[in-house]
Amino acid sequence: MTLALIHTPRLCERTTLRLGGPALAEAVVFAEADLDQLGKELSCLGGRPLALGAGSNLLAADGPSDLVLVRPVNNAVPQVVQTGNSALVRVGAGFGLPRLLGLCQRLGLSGLEGLTGIPGKVGGAVAMNAGSYGVETGSLLTRVRLWTPEGGLIWREAKDCAFGYRHFDAGLGSGFSVIWEAEFLLASDAPGAIRARMEATYAKKKAVQPVTARSAGCVFKNPAGLPAGAGKLLDEAGMRGRVLGGMAFSSLHANFLVNLGGGTAAQALELLDLGRSAVRARFGVELETEVVVVS
Ligand SMILES: Cc1cc2nc3c(=O)[nH]c(=O)nc-3n(C[C@H](O)[C@H](O)[C@H](O)COP(=O)(O)OP(=O)(O)OC[C@H]3O[C@@H](n4cnc5c(N)ncnc54)[C@H](O)[C@@H]3O)c2cc1C
To answer: Given this chain, do its domains 4-72 and 211-294 carry the same CATH topology?
Structure first.
């Protein structure tokens, strides 16, 4: 398969919030062999490249942009190398995270269960250092393979990368890079026990999060050093269930911004401002966005 180029792709069709106007172009990258062509296309197209996974952590502006979306769809069955009581799992960035969790459960490989319920692709999970219930993507990684227009494909050991709260830095500088593959070290366990932990995690989330709504997960980070998370602060500042046009802070979980239908990014951004101001006024705390805002 060769690289596919799509002109003026609509971000509202590529993000779980269903928001965003047309980008300049989208390059869909199927295989390693396409990456040479990707470099050439990026320099011909101009614009600003943006790596895209499942768009489950993006809030994209309404109008047209000069973004060139780069979407890896390398989703072949992961390679698994068993070594005693553990295994190395090498997986493409375009592989779905929920699918990876399901596969590991069936193979009796444990570690990722806390990430149950997080949509998105492996590349997006690494880029965001996605985490929940005490598990962070970065803590299970052994190495990451990245592509840059200048240097091509290179492996970076996890110990040479920086991982923080919804933050990943491969140490390659500020230029554009795409996560192409990741390798995880997972421990062997009984598939039934892994499934039970996954089900328990999902049940806990479903009880308190609008898991099937059009959202991008939590929009603000939990402030460091405070016992209350961003959701509780927003709730106590009166933002739970607050509606603006077609957008709202969920009535189930105040830190989830949801598109009720027909919402716009302008409304979403205004609600974020309202939430930030309300929490600042009530608690003197400055909320930082977790959702990636692109325009
Ligand atoms: C219902 C719901 C629940 C959620 N729960 C959680 C949760 O519990 N914990 C959590 O951490 N997140 C959660 N999220 C947010 C989101 O799912 C995660 O951040 C996810 O890892 C994003 O993956 P993605 O493929 O959708 O990335 P995208 O949204 O496509 O991109 C997110 C960022 O990663 C970059 N990126 C994506 N792919 C690549 C790549 N291949 N190379 C380089 N950069 C890349 C993008 O440029 C962008 O900056 C939730 C979202 C939803 C909708």
So the answer is: no
Active site residues: 166, 218, 290
Average pLDDT over residues 278-289: 97
17 lines ligand 1 (CB under 6 A): no
The dihedral sign for the CA sequence 183, 184, 185, 190: negative
* Domain 79-207: assigned CATH number: 3.30.465.10
pLDDT tens digits along 10-65? 999 999 999 999 999 999 999 999 999 999 999 999 999 999 999 999 999 999 99
In the reported structure, the alpha carbon of residue 120 is separated from the centroid of ligand 1 by a whole-number distance in angstroms of 5
Residue boundaries of the structural domains of the chain: 4-72, 79-207, 211-294
pTM to 2 decimal places: 0.97
CB of 58 shorter than 6 A to ligand 1: yes
The domain made up of 211-294 is a member of CATH 3.50.50.60: no
d(CA 290, CA 220): 5
Domain 4-72 classified CATH 3.40.640.10?
no
| pLDDT interval class at 1 (50, 70, 90) | low
